[in-house]
Write a structure and sequence with these properties.
The chain is α/β, with parallel strands linked by helices. It has 12 helices and 12 strands.
Length: 296
């Protein structure tokens, strides 16, 4: 297939390009820069200039393709609500280019959208259109396209990691360096799910090849790692003390990350594994944190 990939030069996208090419697909990778275009060309992909804000560029990329994987997202969390709305518009534009066909659109969400709250295990069959997290905008947009007859499915992400990056854990490293301690809230028993980058990109490939209308897949290799265990791994790597803080201190210590650090978000991928024959085998999150290069 010719696959249009947004976010093609990002953390996930740059690993997804060789995964798709290695399986015999052609890749049209979206980039906003000349350097990105050169990297895509060197990797064997076709570069397509565009941005999430330029809906015409999204539509024109999708029109050239047999399938679309939307892996891009603006991770400026100081503008989180605005960026979720931007993703809603981007998904709508991509879907509009696929109207009247069965060409699949694989969009991206997060595993928390499949949770029942209060630490309940998130599963693929759960969709709460009134979820309070602004990220629900992406799945609402996908559902609107489904109702319009577009072939949409979703890959929901946990904390995606390798030894160089670890999702929302990477900002915790910056905070620890700034404050001189690695902190967790309360007992640190809340859980975050995780998936190794190599496993995650393989799942995207399997999802686009399956083209299963309306499916939600969880890219989860580990159902949940406690925030205390994560903090202890960071403490070892950064050689900093690990401390517990009370919830009332979280905003002052973590800043914008305070909204995330206490979330209890365990997630399952049992259905995904059975449905796609996907069996995650990459290193664990803690193993990658122990192998991370912490020197500035």
């Amino acid at each position: 297939m010719r696959i249009f990939l947004t976010g093609a030069t990002g953390f996930i996208g740059s690993a997804l390009v060789p995964e798709l090419l290695g399986a015999g697909h052609q890749v049209i990778g979206m980039t906003r820069s000349q350097a990105g275009a050169q990297a895509l060309t060197a990797a064997g992909a076709q570069a397509h200039f565009g941005t999430l804000e330029d809906l015409d560029s999204l539509r024109s990329g999708a029109e050239q393709a047999d399938a679309v994987i939307h892996a891009a997202f603006d991770h400026d969390f100081s503008r989180f609500v605005e960026n979720c709305d931007k993703d809603r518009r981007a998904i709508g534009a991509l879907g509009s280019a696929l109207a009247g066909s069965d060409r699949p659109l694989i969009m991206t969400s997060v595993t928390g959208m499949g949770g029942g709250g209060h630490g309940a295990l998130a599963t693929e069959d759960v969709f709460d259109a009134s979820h309070p997290n602004p990220r629900i905008a992406s799945e609402q947009a996908g559902n609107a396209l489904l109702e319009a007859g577009i072939n949409v499915s979703v890959v929901r992400l946990p904390q995606v990691h390798n030894p160089w990056r670890q999702g929302l854990i990477s900002p915790l490293i910056d905070i620890a360096r700034k404050t001189g301690v690695v902190a967790y809230v309360g007992e640190g028993a809340n859980l975050w799910p995780a998936g190794h980058l190599a496993d995650v990109v393989r799942l995207y490939r399997l999802a686009v090849e399956a083209g299963e209308r309306g499916a939600r897949f969880h890219a989860v290799g580990e159902e949940g790692i406690s925030s205390r265990e994560i903090a202890q791994a960071l403490g070892r790597g950064l050689k900093l003390p690990v401390v517990s803080i009370v919830p009332e201190q979280a905003a002052a210590h973590f800043g914008w990350m305070a909204a995330f650090v206490s979330l209890d978000l365990p997630a399952s991928s049992a259905w995904t594994q059975t449905r796609l024959g996907w069996h995650p085998s990459g290193p664990t999150l803690i193993a990658d944190l122990d192998q991370a290069r912490y020197a500035v």
